[in-house]
Structure formats: structure tokens, C-alpha cells
Design goal:
Order of helices and strands: EHEHEHEHEHEHHHEHH
Shape: globular
Strand order of the largest sheet: 3-2-1-4-5-6-7
Distance between the termini: 39 Å
Radius of gyration: 19 Å
Structural class: alpha/beta
Length: about 300
């Protein structure tokens, strides 16, 4: 970030979605420590134990509330309650998300694809729509946690990539309109964050996904070897580092639209954004699947 951190968060009200673990939890704690009045929301409040413990250990106060991004009534009720309590809303961080539940498109179902888009895209749109009137009144910030998968398509992650690509385009289109009305829009793009309970599919892991991948199992095995070896997991970063980037973005006077969370993510995005015909990314993907980069 080139801009100094000069926006004073004192008295500013921030709402974050998906704070039961990972980036959302870390951001709620980091923002509260920075001085924001932090409303930490989650779909299941009985899962707030780790969040409360982390906040207490950090000496930070968070206001924990229920918000299900897939339920428009839950979203509007939560935002209305926040406004009644504090009289304002200065910033929103869209963080809630889920991972893939199926190994690849052919083995998936319409229901699984829609469920992924419902949380990862429509949930973001629903929260953003409901928050914008309050953010306009406050001259506020709308920050969304994106993904490198929202810029570079990842094999065996079709539904998740589709949702994150949609988020990227949605926010890119919204940003100049929102800015004309006093709201700064940014997308923070982390790479791999290992310390999170990402997803709502506790009985699904890579072994079961590979077993369910039918004729794609050998290719899936190549992909898993890449992930665990020289692949993108080797460039992972802890959730607290991403949280620090989010807080800096919230505080920057003129934040950029796209904010890579580390140097690796910046390089990864640069490969796509400098690839107008898509050939460089396709060559990368062939390498991830154990195929020579020159294979047609």
C-alpha cells in the first residue's frame, strides 16, 4: 500500500461476516484492537467460542451477532439492529465463504454449484446491497475478501472460482459508482491461508474428493502432488497477516481497488493480468496437473 494509514478508526463502526475462524476471526480481533467498534457476525453464534477467546486474549471487545449471508431477512435485520445500536455503519468486510464440495464439474450437481454461488457470490451481493445506504451516509468502506482463484482459474475448483470471479467483476464494476457517492470499494486478495476452518463440508477432504473423482482421479492425484509440493500452498500466509492488510486497507485514505495480501499473491495476479490471450495461465495450469507446459 502506498498510502499512509491516517484514517482514525476511533468511533467507527465496522461489520465483518464469517468470523468463526480464519481471516474473519483474525480481522475482527485486529480491527477491534485498532480502535474500530467491531460487529463480528457469523451464521451460528454457538460457534463464537474461539472468536471470544481470541478477543479476550488480545484485550479487544467485539460485538458478536448472528448474520446468515444466504438469508436476506437475516442480513437486513442484523444491519438494522446495528444501526439502532450505534447510529451508524462506517465499514463492512465481506468475508463469509465456503469451499468446493465436489471434485470437478462432471461429478458435481446443480444443487452443489448453486450452494457455492449462494454463499460466495450472492451472499456478498446481499450484504453489500443492504449496507450501501448506511455506508453512503458515513462516507464508508466496503472491503471484500477475494481470492487468487477469482483472477486465475484453479483446476478442480470450478464452482469456487466461478463465484470468486463473479465477486471480482461485481466489485470492479461497483467501485467507480460507489466512489462517486463517497464509498471506497476494495478487494483484498490472499493466497493460501492454512489456519482456517474453511468450508461447511466437514466430512469432505482431499482423499474423499479424489476417490469420488471417477475418471479424473489420476489427474486429481497430480494436482494434489503439486499442491503439497512446490505448489501454491508453499506460499501460504497466516490469517493474522491477511487481517493486518484488511485493517490497513480500511484505514488508508485512498485504498486501491485490488490489494494483494502478500508478494506471492501480487506475482500470481500479475501473471494473469499481463496475459491477454490466456495462454500463460493455461500453460501454468497444465504444469499443475503434471502435464508439460507445451502440451496443446
Amino acid at each position: 500500500m502506498n498510502e499512509p494509514d491516517s484514517t482514525d478508526p476511533t468511533g467507527r463502526v465496522l461489520l465483518i461476516t464469517g468470523t468463526s475462524s480464519g481471516i474473519g476471526l483474525a480481522t475482527a480481533v485486529a480491527a477491534a484492537r485498532a480502535g474500530y467498534t467491531t460487529v463480528a457476525t457469523l451464521r451460528e453464534p454457538d460457534r463464537a467460542g474461539p472468536l471470544r477467546a481470541a478477543a479476550e486474549a488480545a484485550g479487544a471487545a467485539v460485538d458478536v451477532r448472528r448474520l446468515d449471508v444466504t438469508d436476506p431477512d437475516s442480513v437486513t435485520d442484523c444491519l438494522a439492529a446495528v444501526h439502532r445500536t450505534y447510529g451508524r455503519l462506517d465499514a463492512v468486510v465481506n468475508n463469509a465463504g465456503v469451499s468446493n464440495s465436489d471434485p470437478t464439474l462432471e461429478m458435481s450437481t446443480d444443487a452443489a454449484l448453486r450452494a457455492n454461488l449462494d454463499v460466495n457470490f450472492f451472499g456478498v451481493a446481499t450484504v453489500s446491497r443492504a449496507a450501501l445506504p448506511l455506508l453512503r451516509a458515513a462516507g464508508g468502506r466496503l472491503v471484500t475478501i477475494g481470492s487468487v482463484h477469482g483472477v486465475v482459474g484453479q483446476p478442480f475448483n470450478e464452482a469456487y472460482c466461478a463465484a470468486k470471479f463473479a465477486v471480482e467483476g461485481f466489485m470492479e464494476a461497483l467501485a467507480p459508482v460507489a466512489a462517486a457517492h463517497g464509498v471506497r470499494v476494495s478487494v483484498v486478495v490472499p493466497g493460501f491461508v492454512p489456519d482456517t476452518e474453511f468450508g461447511i463440508f466437514p466430512d469432505i477432504d482431499r482423499t474423499t474428493l479424489q476417490a469420488a473423482s471417477g475418471p479424473y482421479a489420476p489427474t486429481f492425484a497430480d494436482y494434489l502432488r503439486w499442491l503439497g509440493g512446490a505448489g501454491w500452498e508453499s506460499a501460504g500466509q497466516p490469517a493474522r497477516e491477511v487481517a493486518e492488510v484488511v485493517v490497513r486497507t480500511l484505514r488508508a485514505p485512498r485504498p486501491p481497488f485490488r490489494v494483494p495480501a502478500n508478494g506471492w499473491a501480487a506475482d500470481y495476479l500479475a501473471a494473469k493480468l499481463a496475459d491477454p490471450d490466456g495462454s500463460a495461465v493455461q500453460a501454468l495450469a497444465r504444469g499443475w496437473l503434471g502435464r508439460p507446459a507445451t502440451t496443446p
